[in-house]
Design brief:
The complex is a heterodimer of chains A (about 100) and B (about 500). Chain A is mainly alpha-helical and about 100 residues long. Chain A is built from three helices and two strands; from the N terminus they run αααββ. Chain B has a domain of about 260 residues: Amidase signature (AS) domain (Amidase signature (AS) enzymes, Alpha-Beta Complex). Classes of the chains: A mainly alpha (about 100), B alpha/beta (about 500).
C-alpha cells in the first residue's frame, strides 16, 4: 500500500502537524518507504492468532476510586506558556 | 590522588566505604571531567551544585554509618527522566525550558539510595533514533574514534548510538560512574555496544515508567548503562521495584543482583537462534558471535541451536506498533499546558504550528506513520496485524524457554558504530536496521543484556547480547560476567576531547 499527496495532507491534519506544500512530497516518499518496509507482514499467516494486549501475563491492578492529590494549581500551571487566574489560556474556541 | 574517574562504580563504592576518599572529592573529579568535555555534547544540563550538595550529605551519612547502597556515587540521567526543578526536554524543542514539578520514580529510587546527579544526558529526540543525531541540541559524540591497522587514528566523529547516546558516551568517556537510560527497541543495548559499555534492558514491568517521557508505552523500559556487568547489577537493584504510580510495574521483590555476578554458569543452556544469522551478516560480527559461544562453552554452559522463526518480522512490526503508540503519547504536546507555543488564527492553527515547529523531522515522520496505521480503515490491516505478529514473536521465545533454554546469545548490532551523517539521510529505513537484533526483545517484553566482546577491524567496540527469561535478570548477570571475564579487555579511550 502507498499513500498519495492528499492522504499525506489528511494524515498531517489528523496529527495536527502543519505540513508545507514543499515538504509534502518528501514526507510522501519517506512514508511510502516505511510502508513498503512493513509490507512483508501481509504474507504472515495470522489466522486464529490473538493480538497482543499485554506482553506479560498480569492482572490489571486497581485502586480505590478516591482523590489522591490536588490543590496543586501552581504546580500544574508552572510550565504553561499562557495562564491567567489559575487557568490555561487558549485562543477563543466558541464564537 | 589518582584519577578517581577511572574507578568502576563498585570500586568507588568500596573506596568511599573504606574512607579512601570522600564523596565530595569523588564528585568534584567528575564535575571537573564533565567541564572539560563540552566538545562531546554529552550533557544537556550540568548540575554540579546539586551533585556537591548531595555528596556533602552522603559524606555525613557515611560518617554516621548510614550509607545507602549507592551513597555518594555520581550518575548521569538521560534527559527523558523528569527531574524535579531541573530542565527535562527529551532533547526536543517542544519541551525546551520545561521544568518538572515532580521526580521520576526511578531517579527518586537512586537518590533514596544515596546517588548524586551530575546532570541530564543527551539523547535522540523523544528517544526516536539510533545515533543520537535527531537531538534538537545536536548529536552527542562518542569518545571512540576509528583506528586503522597502521595505528592511525581517524578524526571522523563517531556516533555513540541511540537513543541513549549521551548516557553511553558519558559512561565510556568517564563523565559519570553510571547512567540511567531507556530502551524501546534497543536504545540501551545498541549504544552500550557502540561504546564498549554494559547495558541492560530489564523485563517489561521491572522498573517504573512513572516520570519517564513516554514514547511507546508497551515497549518502553528503564535500565542502566555502566562500565562493568557488576556496576549495572548494582544500579538495577536500586532502579527496579514496584510503583503504584505505574500499573504495569510488577509487584515482586527485587533480588540483590550483584550476588549473581560471578555465579557459576555451569550447565546453563544457551540458545543460538539460527534466524539471527542474517543474509549478509558481516564476517566480523559472525566471528564475534562464534567467540561468544566458545567463551560460554568454556565456562561450562551447554550450547544449543534454536529456531525463532518469526524473528524477521519483528522489525517491521515494531515500526507499526511503536509509531502508533508514539502518535498517541505525543498528542499531549499541544502548546497549551507546557513547552513551546506558536500562536495562529485559532486553536487548530495553534496546535498545528506548535507541533510543526516543536517536533523534529524524525518525530514528525513517526507521528504521521502512527496516525496513518491507526486511522479508520487501516487499523486492522496494520496495527491489529502487527499485534498478532507480536504474539507470534513472543510465542517463539516461550517455546525455546519451555524446551529448557536458559538464555539466548546473539550479536548486539549488525555493525560497529558509524560516523556522523553516514546513515539514514536518504532512507529512514537504513537507520532502523540498527535495531534488528534488539527489537525482538522489546516486542516480547524480555530482559536483554549487552556486554563488550572485542574491537572491530577499525578499532571500535562490538557487543554481544544475552536475552533471558522474564524476570530472570540474575541469569543474564551471571552469563554476562562470564563473557566479561573471557573477552579481551578493550579499555576505554583516552581523553582526546579534554
Amino acid at each position: 500500500m502507498s499513500v498519495d499527496l492528499a492522504t499525506v495532507r489528511r494524515i498531517a491534519h489528523l496529527a495536527r502537524i502543519r505540513v508545507s506544500e514543499e515538504e509534502a512530497p518528501y514526507l510522501q516518499n519517506e512514508i511510502n518507504s516505511i510502508l513498503s518496509f512493513v509490507e512483508e507482514l501481509n504474507a504472515v499467516d495470522v489466522e486464529g492468532v490473538e493480538p497482543m494486549t499485554s506482553v506479560l501475563p498480569m492482572a490489571m491492578k486497581k485502586r480505590a476510586d478516591v482523590v489522591t492529590d490536588g490543590n496543586i494549581v501552581d504546580k500544574v500551571l508552572a510550565n504553561a506558556p499562557a495562564r491567567e487566574d489559575g487557568f490555561f489560556v487558549v485562543p477563543k474556541v466558541i464564537e | 590522588m589518582s584519577d578517581l574517574t577511572r574507578l568502576t562504580l563498585a570500586e568507588a563504592r568500596d573506596g568511599l566505604s573504606a574512607r579512601k576518599f570522600s564523596a565530595v572529592e569523588l564528585n568534584q573529579s567528575f564535575i571537573d571531567a564533565v567541564a572539560r568535555a563540552n566538545s562531546l555534547n554529552v550533557y544537556l544540563v550540568e548540575t554540579p551544585e546539586k551533585a556537591l550538595a548531595q555528596a556533602k550529605a552522603s559524606d555525613e551519612r557515611i560518617a554516621r554509618g548510614e550509607a545507602g547502597p549507592l551513597e555518594g556515587i555520581p550518575l548521569g540521567v538521560k534527559d527523558l527522566y523528569a527531574t524535579e526543578g531541573v530542565q527535562t526536554t527529551a532533547a526536543s524543542h517542544i519541551l525546551e525550558g520545561f521544568i518538572p514539578q515532580y521526580e521520576s520514580t526511578v531517579t527518586a529510587n537512586l537518590w533514596r539510595d544515596g546517588a548524586t546527579m551530575l546532570g541530564k544526558l543527551n539523547l535522540d529526540e523523544f528517544a526516536m533514533g539510533s545515533s543520537n543525531e535527531t537531538s534538537y541540541f545536536g548529536p552527542a559524540i562518542s569518545p571512540w574514534r576509528r583506528q586503522g591497522a597502521d595505528g592511525k587514528v581517524s578524526d571522523a566523529k563517531i556516533v555513540p548510538g541511540g537513543s541513549s547516546g549521551g548516557s553511553a558516551a558519558a559512561v565510556a568517556a568517564r563523565l559519570c560512574l553510571g547512567a540511567t537510560a531507556t530502551d524501546t527497541g534497543g536504545s540501551i543495548r545498541q549504544p552500550a555496544a557502540f561504546t564498549g559499555t554494559v547495558g541492560i534492558k530489564p523485563t517489561y514491568g521491572r522498573c517504573s515508567r512513572f516520570g519517564i517521557v513516554a514514547f511507546a508505552s508497551s515497549l518502553d523500559q528503564a535500565g542502566p548503562i555502566a562500565r562493568t556487568v557488576r556496576d549495572t547489577a548494582i544500579l538495577l537493584r536500586s532502579m527496579a521495584g514496584h510503583d503504584p504510580k505505574d500499573t504495569t510495574s510488577v509487584d515482586a521483590p527485587v533480588p540483590d543482583y550483584e550476588k549473581s555476578v560471578g555465579a557459576s554458569v555451569k550447565g546453563k543452556v544457551i540458545g543460538i537462534p539460527k534466524e539471527y544469522r542474517l543474509d549478509g551478516l558481516s564476517a566480523e560480527i559472525a566471528a564475534l558471535w562464534d567467540r561468544g559461544v566458545e567463551w560460554l562453552k568454556a565456562a561450562g554452559a551447554e550450547i544449543r541451536e534454536i529456531s525463532l522463526p518469526h524473528t524477521r518480522h519483528a522489525l517491521p512490526a515494531y515500526y507499526i506498533v511503536a509509531p502508533a503508540e508514539a502518535s498517541s503519547n505525543l498528542a499531549r504536546y499541544d502548546g497549551v499546558r507546557y513547552g513551546l507555543r506558536k500562536t495562529g488564527k485559532d486553536i487548530v492553527d495553534l496546535y498545528e504550528l506548535t507541533r510543526a515547529e516543536g517536533f523534529g523531522k524524525e518525530v514528525r515522520r513517526r507521528i504521521m506513520i502512527g496516525t496513518y496505521v491507526l486511522s479508520a480503515g487501516y487499523y486492522d490491516a496494520y496495527y491489529l496485524r502487527a499485534q498478532k505478529i507480536r504474539t507470534l514473536i513472543k510465542r517463539d521465545f516461550d517455546l525455546a524457554y519451555q524446551a529448557g533454554v536458559d538464555a539466548i546469545l546473539t550479536p548486539a548490532t549488525p555493525s560497529p558504530a558509524f560516523a556522523l551523517g553516514e546513515k539514514g539521510s536518504a532512507d529512514p529505513v537504513e537507520m532502523y536496521l540498527n535495531d534488528v537484533f534488539t527489537v525482538t526483545v522489546n516486542m516480547a517484553g524480555l530482559p536483554g543484556l549487552v556486554v563488550p566482546g572485542g574491537l572491530s577491524s577499525d578499532g571500535l567496540p562490538l557487543g554481544l547480547q544475552l536475552i533471558g527469561r522474564p524476570f530472570e535478570e540474575e541469569t543474564l548477570f551471571a552469563l554476562g560476567q562470564a563473557i566479561e571475564e573471557a573477552a579481551p579487555k578493550i579499555g576505554l579511550p583516552e581523553a582526546w576531547w579534554a
